[in-house]
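Record type: monomer structure entry
Structure origin: computed from sequence
Chain ID: A
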Amino acid sequence: MVKLSTVLELVQELSDSDRSELAGMLKDERKDVIPVNAFAGKYSGLESLCVFLKDEKGMRFIDIAKLLKRSQVTVRITYHNAKKKKGKFKLTGIGIPINIFADRKKSVMKNLVSYLKDVEKKSFAEIAEMLGRNYKTVWTAYTR
């Protein structure tokens, strides 16, 4: 594993234009993530995505639909149903890449739990705590 001091030294050696390009790339990378805590609370997985992308990112329904590979009608209805619940979420925690949710072969919850388990190496208990869900719910979503 590379030490932070080594990375900082390498960044300092870059030209100003290269540093700006790197900063832009990091900013763009962070733009396409949703905090894991957005999935905790009253909303379903798809509702969390729709509300976050619409309210926090200011995306249009058609852009959300394209990103998630769903119909615009589905996204619009899901968003409006979620807003009736009047739930709130904290925007902290691990950043989940939004593009993982475009896989329609798996549910939103399965994609989320699989990412946290396989990529972030979290235990089912940790995932359940982060999402505010029951351990068995998380385990079931992963094993289906």
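Annotation 1: The mean pLDDT is 85.
Annotation 2: The longest helix spans residues 16-31.
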